[in-house]
Design a protein that fits this description.
CATH architecture: Orthogonal Bundle
Strand content: under 5%
InterPro entries: Sig_transdc_resp-reg_C-effctor, Tscrpt_reg_LuxR_C, WH-like_DNA-bd_sf
Pfam families: GerE (PF00196)
Order of helices and strands: HHHHH
Number of domains: 1
GO molecular function, one term: DNA binding
CATH topology: Arc Repressor Mutant, subunit A
Helix content: 55-70%
Distance between the termini: 55 Å
Structural class: mainly alpha
CATH class: Mainly Alpha
Protein name: Response regulator transcription factor
Keywords: DNA-binding, Transcription, Transcription regulation
Radius of gyration: 15 Å
Number of helices: 5
Length: 90
């Protein structure tokens, strides 16, 4: 019981700590990821290869303890790592 509780607390601490350790480049990639861009498009925007973009995405998933790109963006929004896109009122 106590061990399970400690494990949950450690997991929560790791999830919160992971957000703080994103590199500047990973933050750039995360911003584009939040816009729904593919690795290829991220690469074009940041002048890196799609493979390098993929590596950054994998690192982001690991650091945010996310199983998918969508989950990573959701976690990032919850933690305030990416701002919601402004909505236009046309």
């Amino acid at each position: 019981d106590d061990l399970v509780r400690r494990g949950r607390l450690a997991g929560a601490a790791r999830a919160g700590a992971g957000a703080a350790v994103l590199t500047a480049r990973e933050q750039d990639v995360l911003r584009l990821l939040a816009l729904g861009h593919s690795n290829r498009r991220i690469g074009q925007e940041l002048f890196i290869s799609a493979k390098t973009a993929s590596v950054h995405v994998s690192n982001i998933l690991a650091k945010l303890n996310a199983a998918s790109r969508t989950e990573a963006v959701a976690v990032a929004h919850r933690q305030g790592l990416v701002a919601p896109e402004p909505t236009s009122s046309h």
